[in-house]
Amino acid sequence: MRSRFSRSGMRVCLAAGMVLVLSACSGGIMDPAGPVAAGERTIMLDALAIMLAIVLPTMAATVAFAWWYRAGNKRATYRPDFVHSGRIELIVWSIPLLTIMFLGGVIWVGSHRLDPARPLESRVRPLEVQVVSLDWKWLFIYPQQGVASVNRLIIPAGVPVHFELTSASVLNTFFVHQLGSQIYTMNGMRSQLNLQADRPGRYYGQSAHFSGDGFSDMNFWTMAVPVGQFNNWAAAARGNGPVLSAANYRQFARQSQGVKPFTFRAVQPGLFDAVVRQQLPPAPGPETGRGGHTMTSPGDAH
Amino acid sequence: MSDHKRLDGDRNDSAPGDEGVNTHEPLSGVKGYAIGLALASLLTAAAFILPGTGLIWGPAIPAALVVLAIAQMGIHLVFFLHITTGSDNQNNVIALAFGVLIVALVVLGSVWIMNHLHHQLMTPADMMRMMR
Amino acid sequence: MFGKLDWSAIPFDQPIPLIAAAAIGVILAAVLGWITVKGHWPYLWNEWITSVDHKRIGVMYVMLGVVMLVRGFSDVMLMRTHQAAAFGASQGYLPPEHYNQIFSAHGTIMIFFGSMPFIIGLMNFVVPLQLGVRDVAFPTLNSVSFWLTASGALLTNVSLVIGEFARTGWLPYAPLSETSYSPGVGVDYYLWALQIAGVGTLMSGVNLVTTILKMRAPGMGYLRMPMFCWTALGSNMLIVAAFPILTATLAMLTLDRYLGFHFFTNEAGGNPMMFMNLIWAWGHPEVYILVLPAFGIFSEVFSTFSSKPLFGYRSMVLATLFIVVVSFTVWLHHFFTMGAGGDVNAFFGISTSVIAVGTGVKVFNWLFTMYGGRVRFDTPMLWALAFVLYFVVGGMTGVLLAVPPADFLLHNSMFLVAHFHNVIVGGVIFGAMAGYEYWFPKAFGFRLDEGWGKLAFWLTVVGTVVVFGAFYIVGLEGMTRRLQHIDNLAWYDWIMVALAGTLLIAGGVLAQIMQLVVSIRHRDRLRDETGDPWDGRSLEWITPSPPPVFNFPVLPDVHGEEAYWEIKQRAIEQQQLSEVPDYQPIEMPRNSPTGVITAFFCTFVGFALIWHIWWLAALGLVGAYVTFVVFAWRDEVEFEIPAEEVERIDRARRESRQVILERGAPA
Amino acid sequence: MSGATAQAGRQHGARGHDPYALGHGHGGGGDHEATGHGEGGPASKRIITGYGFWIFLLSDIVMFSGFFAAYAVLAGETAGGPGGRELFELPRVAIETALLLLSSFTCGLGSVATERRSVFWTQIWLLATGLLGVAFLVLEVQEFVQMVAEGAGPQRSAFLSAFFALVGCHGLHVGVGILWLGTMMAQLWVKGFRADILRRLLCFNLFWHALDIIWVALFTIVYLLGSGA
Ligand code: HEO
Ligand code: HEM
Ligand SMILES: [Cu+2]
């Protein structure tokens, strides 16, 4: 892929190198652990390289022109009537235009290929996970396994995961940097996301959209484990922990922070759909703020 | 003095709403407003009555209504607001065109975006409803 | 009686805002006391507060902007120091409910009450001068606009002590901003402050568009307007077209909060996504409203300090209009991650990056303006050079964010924060600083001290590179914006670097203030006698510094693309000034307190609505209406300056011009 | 600075300074007449005022477009409550439309009377315009009250929120217009046809006609399409 830009190959390496050195293996987005994140990172670096090929010379020219044509330089020729040139005008428009045309191609293809709702190509049947963001914790429901996990996402490595996502209250963003593609979770909406972890590991995940007082610590570890281990975990989870019923859910959906990870032994079927369809009403917010009391509680409308 | 030159109306420029500077067109004054009123009434009546008559193919009615509305807005602009294509009116028309462009972008853009979002984020229940 | 307002509104439990407010209160009382003791009130009232002179209003706008930029920067100091202390087990010193107000207030204040007034102030001051006319189209309305903006700024700052500010971010995304999740008055403060200031901005936009399109000196065809007037036109067209969308959106949220409507709620079919859609349909054009005038300032600066006309003027005009139109087709790039699907994302991604074409054209033309010039490195030019170097990077990362798959990784990260500060600080703030340094002599009759100016420049530029460089990197490492507490220690080092950079910027801010103090003290030495300190090219430099109320004794007759340059060269060539004109009496609009009084009532209406004090709101509305009627009833709206007076003032100007002439080449 | 610059100035001096090769360096204030086309100096105050108000109206229309967009998106969100088909009464809307259209006409007659400088007829037509406007408002308020009484208030569903906001916003404009009109009639009474009052009359006419245009969009999109045509 890179060799296509051989003319700016140097700069590709430079740019990629720079960025990589700066953030090597930090667990950030430069250290992908799955096909989606890897594809996105490549696109990002490609785009960066293409643009640097124009931006760096522009910056160099700025310094060079300013310095050479400084008022004190006797050797520079003063040409006050050099103010218009049809040729330069044409060049000036076409350089960015051509760049953007190429970039536009990348955008078009990339947007479709890496559309979060698009299933990943794989021979393995995807694992289904239903994600609910709550104030301020994460609920991961495994409909195929019949269990649920709070504030910890366990997935089998090498298996595509199909997420369905919604929110119990306000907008949040589900984001595991090393897996790629963040997406909004919204009450009454069902977003879709397809990700895969290629290798086992522990990946940092968080809400990437501000959602109120408990937002900062609304993060979770994603554990990608070998398939066998995943199955063991699911079996163990079925063995203990509370049951997630509609009544429990209402309780659980109230605002709380710093909830330690735990699992639900069973989940009332259709719970996720009930949340999406707002049959389970949106979770309540805080009781008061400064200078105000809740006038209507969000459940009242129903 | 150049800046005191013309205090009452430029020959090549007119305020929006003012009748053209070369006023003595046939369609000016009371007559203009009367024609405007007649045409607008006609279009309004058509919009209210036609859909009930069965004269228009059902699914095409929204399109017909929208066209009637656009036509009537045009009538208002021309006969009540005196927006014309005359050279004295260029600035007014350009401003209007810019406004219409923005309105179109905002309304159509929003509808397009929200439709796609709705489609993509549809809940299973909605999907059932769509099928029906 | 007082609606929801009672003593619990005052945050006695939070020492920081209380102390800050007390300090501000003391300073304010001291200033007011000083004015009273010195007996300056009549002067202030007659010459400034009720002034309808576009130059005075422009200066007041800029002053408001500067004060609010400093205010917004104090928030930055809080955020940076807090975050540096809020890693792992440590919680820092600001609880979430306070920290969340701070970044929201920072964003809101910086955009609406820092940058906007600064930029609008410069346009107000400069545009009529550059067009060669005596004032804007609607001088009294101009004063109303200014005071409404000030009213919004006041409400925002009052929220510091009475109640709270929004804790939702600078754009109050629903449903977080709905009553269910934000029951306090914070969002209400936000709504009314912005609604009032927004109306002011909108009217200012109407005013300037009309001025530019309908009031130009004889001979000043469209393609003879200085570039700054073009970008001002573009910016104000955007204001006129975009701000009403903000008004509508905020009104909908207000209806939701006050009357239980369901536009954006989770219940009864409300659609929070619609809020994001509408707010960004305004929000994206807004960033070009800010940056276009800055582009204009740089165009003037590059040309003046390269001693050359602007290169590629026609392309520049085209690029400006191009940006104006295209900026209305890109707003979805702020929510690629909402999941609208490949087609929509691709369309908006591409249209976003297309803006880079228009901007790129501008950058290249600035470069070629320097090519073959005689570049002088005065402070405005330094800001301009730093701008190009800095802004192209910010623009590039913007285009990167416009690539949806890349945005899926970078959205809402510190990388995004770095992007927009990179373009806002590097574009808008650097532009505002360049304009400030460039037009200051024109406004006040003396130059600013170059030494302090350059120090401020270097500190600020290095500081911003450090801060936002660090943000880019932690962004790539996955750090999210708006974190009150950080439990990922990998980011620690870069947050400390950012803190160090912030201290550098703080030094820059101080140096900038010192520059003003030192320059005022040495104003006699720095006096600008000629009215043309930079060897300028457009009509503002033909007037004396500061210009008389009427700007031009006789409207200049424009004969070429660079109105003043051409007049100046002709005079130098013929070794004489143009003929003494036939002076006529000049009618100028009378000063009017309409603006302050309207704003006074609006502030009360806003405050009353925030606290549900309905009678006060009604009273305020009636007051505003009465003001309007009284204003409409005035009989004498103008006063006449006799021809002899005009002649006397212009004689002084002509004498100083003679100096330029004899020098043959002004400095 | 130097000879070279002066040189450049001199070169262009003869045919006007045209560094950008735009090709119309003839210059001079006298050639063209109107600001709009470039060179005639500031426009007259009437044109400036009218144009400024025109720009304001366009911005107002953009604001309406925000409400229209919201309505278009939320029109289907009845949350189990009543929809347009059940709620809208077209006969009333037809009367409202007729009233507003007629008021636009009387408003225009008023401007003709103003052009002829007839205070009497101007006042008469303004009064007629105002009364028609009031009648329109009365019908609209009646409709709102009736809907709220039926439990179809704006809190009922997102559709009704958008409906009340959009139609109400137009109604609010009509109300403000009537207030303005009353104030101006009083002014005209006291002060006669002063230049500034003539300008305000021009603006009022623009405003009133624009409201009628918005109403056309409103009755078509909200009422006719919404009542299931
Ligand atoms: C003044 C303010 C300003 C300016 C000028 C810009 C300019 C641009 N912005 Fe930025 N932005 C601004 C302010 C903001 N932007 C934001 C967010 C934002 C996002 C959303 C990211 C996200 O939320 O995930 C995108 C996609 C962009 C894209 C762009 C692009 C493509 C440009 C272009 O206009 C840049 C064009 C300039 C270029 C490219 C450099 C010069 C060109 C050359 C040298 C030619 C050659 C180059 C190429 C062909 C690439 N911006 C936000 C976030 C708000 C929030 O979420 O709170 C703000 C405030
Ligand atoms: C000059 C130095 C400045 C510094 C060091 C600075 C720093 C910051 C920081 C640290 C944040 C919070 C980042 C986070 O979310 O964690 C922030 C947010 C923001 N800043 Fe600045 N800023 C500066 C100037 C400006 C200016 C001039 C503007 C606008 C004109 C601006 C607009 C914003 C906005 C809109 C936000 C987002 C607020 C939000 O998240 O709701 N900043 N800034
Ligand atoms: Cu944007």
From TrEMBL, chain A:
Membrane-crossing segments per the record: 43-69, 90-110
- Residue ranges annotated for the Cytochrome oxidase subunit II copper A binding domain, each copy included: 124-236
What biological processes does GO assign it?
A: ATP synthesis coupled electron transport
Q: How does it sit in the membrane?
A: Multi-pass membrane protein
Q: Where in the cell is it found?
A: Cell membrane
Annotated region Disordered: the residues are 280-302
Report whether Transport shows up as a keyword of the record: yes
CDD domains linked to this entry? CuRO_UO_II
Q: Which InterPro entries match?
A: CcO_II (IPR045187), CcO_II-like_C (IPR002429), Cupredoxin (IPR008972), CuRO_UO_II (IPR034227), Cyt_c_oxidase_su2_TM_dom (IPR011759), Cyt_c_oxidase_su2_TM_sf (IPR036257), Cyt_o_ubiquinol_oxidase_su2 (IPR006333)
The UniProt GO MF terms for this protein read: copper ion binding; cytochrome-c oxidase activity; oxidoreductase activity, acting on diphenols and related substances as donors, oxygen as acceptor
> What are the entry keywords?
Cell membrane, Electron transport, Membrane, Oxidoreductase, Respiratory chain, Signal, Transmembrane, Transmembrane helix, Transport
User: Per the database record, which ranges form the Cytochrome oxidase subunit II transmembrane region profile domain?
Assistant: 21-118
GO terms for cellular component: plasma membrane
Q: Which NCBIfam families match?
A: CyoA
Annotated family: Belongs to the cytochrome c oxidase subunit 2 family.
Protein name, as recorded: Ubiquinol oxidase subunit 2
Lineage summary: Bacteria, Pseudomonadati, Pseudomonadota, Alphaproteobacteria, Sphingomonadales
Automatic annotation (TrEMBL), chain B:
Which superkingdom is the protein from? Answer: Bacteria
This protein's record includes keyword Lipoprotein: no
Localization: Cell membrane
Residues spanning the membrane: 32-50, 56-81, 93-114
Q: Which Pfam families match?
A: COX4_pro
Q: Which GO terms describe its cellular component?
A: cytochrome o ubiquinol oxidase complex; plasma membrane
List the Gene Ontology MF annotations in alphabetical order: cytochrome bo3 ubiquinol oxidase activity; proton transmembrane transporter activity
Membrane topology, from the record: Multi-pass membrane protein
Q: Does the keyword Ligase apply?
A: no
User: Which keywords does this chain's UniProt record carry?
Assistant: Cell membrane, Electron transport, Membrane, Oxidoreductase, Transmembrane, Transmembrane helix, Transport
Gene Ontology BP term (one): aerobic electron transport chain
Q: Where is this region: Disordered?
A: 1-24
| InterPro entries in the record | Cyt_c_oxidase_su4_prok, Cyt_o_ubiqinol_oxidase_su4, Cytochrome_c_oxidase_bac_sub4
Listed Basic and acidic residues bias regions: 1-13
NCBIfam families attached to this UniProt entry: CyoD (TIGR02847)
**Subunit notes for this chain?**
Heterooctamer of two A chains, two B chains, two C chains and two D chains.
- Enumerate the PANTHER family for this protein: CYTOCHROME BO(3) UBIQUINOL OXIDASE SUBUNIT 4 (PTHR36835)
Q: Which family does it belong to?
A: Belongs to the cytochrome c oxidase bacterial subunit 4 family.
Q: What does this protein do?
A: Cytochrome bo(3) ubiquinol terminal oxidase is the component of the aerobic respiratory chain of E.coli that predominates when cells are grown at high aeration. Has proton pump activity across the membrane in addition to electron transfer, pumping 2 protons/electron.
Name of protein: Cytochrome bo(3) ubiquinol oxidase subunit 4
Task: Identify the species of origin.
Answer: Sphingomonas aerophila
TrEMBL record, chain C:
A Gene Ontology molecular function term of the record: cytochrome-c oxidase activity
Indicate what this protein is called per its UniProt record: Cytochrome o ubiquinol oxidase subunit 1
- Determine the domain of life of the protein's source: Bacteria
Q: Name one GO cellular component term.
A: plasma membrane
A single Pfam family, by name?
Answer: COX1
In terms of PANTHER family, this protein maps to: CYTOCHROME BO(3) UBIQUINOL OXIDASE SUBUNIT 1, CYTOCHROME C OXIDASE SUBUNIT 1
What are the residue boundaries of the Cytochrome oxidase subunit I profile domain, all occurrences included? 39-559
Family label: Belongs to the heme-copper respiratory oxidase family.
- EC number per UniProt: 1.10.3.-
Query: InterPro entries of this UniProt entry?
Result: Cyt_c_oxase-like_su1_dom (IPR023616), Cyt_c_oxase-like_su1_sf (IPR036927), Cyt_C_Oxase_1 (IPR000883), Cyt_c_Oxase_su1_BS (IPR023615)
Q: How does it sit in the membrane?
A: Multi-pass membrane protein
**Keyword Heme attributed:** yes
Keyword Transcription found: no
User: What keywords were assigned to this record?
Assistant: Cell membrane, Copper, Electron transport, Heme, Iron, Membrane, Metal-binding, Oxidoreductase, Respiratory chain, Transmembrane, Transmembrane helix, Transport
Q: Which SUPFAM superfamilies match?
A: Cytochrome c oxidase subunit I-like
TrEMBL record, chain D:
Alphabetic keyword roster: Cell membrane, Membrane, Oxidoreductase, Transmembrane, Transmembrane helix
A Pfam family per the record: COX3
Q: For this chain's UniProt record, which GO biological process terms are given? A: aerobic electron transport chain
One GO cellular component from the entry? plasma membrane
Q: Where is the Heme-copper oxidase subunit III family profile domain?
A: 51-227
Membrane topology term: Multi-pass membrane protein
Q: Give the source's domain of life in one word.
A: Bacteria
InterPro entries per the UniProt record, alphabetical: Cyt_c/ubiquinol_Oxase_su3 (IPR024791), Cyt_c_oxidase-like_su3 (IPR000298), Cyt_c_oxidase_su3-like_sf (IPR035973), Cyt_c_oxidase_su3_a-hlx (IPR013833), Ubiquinol_oxase_su3_dom (IPR033946)
Where are the annotated segments for Disordered?
A: 1-39
Q: Name one GO molecular function term.
A: oxidoreductase activity
Q: Where are the transmembrane segments?
A: 51-73, 93-112, 119-139, 159-181, 202-226
Q: Where in the cell is it found?
A: Cell membrane
Q: Which family does it belong to?
A: Belongs to the cytochrome c oxidase subunit 3 family.
The record's function comment reads:
Cytochrome bo(3) ubiquinol terminal oxidase is the component of the aerobic respiratory chain of E.coli that predominates when cells are grown at high aeration. Has proton pump activity across the membrane in addition to electron transfer, pumping 2 protons/electron.
Q: How does it assemble?
A: Heterooctamer of two A chains, two B chains, two C chains and two D chains.
What protein am I looking at?
Cytochrome bo(3) ubiquinol oxidase subunit 3
The taxonomy runs:
Bacteria, Pseudomonadati, Pseudomonadota, Alphaproteobacteria, Sphingomonadales
